[in-house]
Amino acid sequence: MRSHLATAGLLAALALTGAQAQGLLENGDFQAGNAGWQIDGAARALYSVIDDDGLGAPGALRYHADEALPAGPVAQRFTCRPGTDYVLMAAIKTDGQVNPVVRVIDPLDGRVIAGVIGRGQTAWTTLSAQFGSGQATELGVQVFGSSEIPITSEAQVGTSLVDDVQVYALADVPEGVRPRDLFTPPGPNIALGQPYTISPSADYPYSRDEGDATQLTDGAFTVGYFWTQLSTVGWIRSQRAEITIDLGEDQPIAGMSANSAAGIAGVDWPNALYVLVSEDGEDWYLAGDLLTLSAAEVGAPAGGYQIHRFATSALRTHGRYLRLLAIYFPFFFVDEIEVYRGPDELLALSPPGEPIEDPMAFARQGAVVASIRERLTTDLDAARAAIAEAGLPDAERTALEARAEALAAEIEALPPRVVEGFTTILPLSDLHARIYALNAPVLQARGFTGLTAWTSNRWDPLQPTQAPAEPPAEPPALRADMMIGEHRAVALNLTNATDDPTAAVVSVRGIPGVSVREVLFTDTRNLAPIAAALPEAEAVEGGFAIDLPAGMTRQVWLALDSTGAEPGMHEGVVEVRSDGIEPMALPFALRIADVVFPDEPTLSLGGWDYTDTGGLYGVTADNMEPLIAKMREHFVNVPWATRDTAPSGGEYDAEGRLTGELDFTRWDRWLSRWPDPRYYSLFLRAPSSFEGEPLGTARFDRMVGDWITAWVEHMAGQGVEPGRLQLLIVDEPTRADQAEIVIAYARAIKAAQPQVRIWEDPRFKEPWTIDPEFWALADALCPNTYVFARADQAERDVYLERQAAGTELWLYDCSGPGKGLDPYSYHRGQTWMAIRYGAVGCGFWAFGSCGGEGCTSWNAYAQTETEYSPLFIGADSVTDGKHMAALREGIEDYEYFVLLRTRVEELRARGGGGGALARAEALLTAGPLEVTDAIVAGGIGWGGEIDRSAMDRVRVQVLDVLEKLADE
Question: Kind of pairing, strands 478-484 and 584-596?
Answer without folding.
Answer: parallel
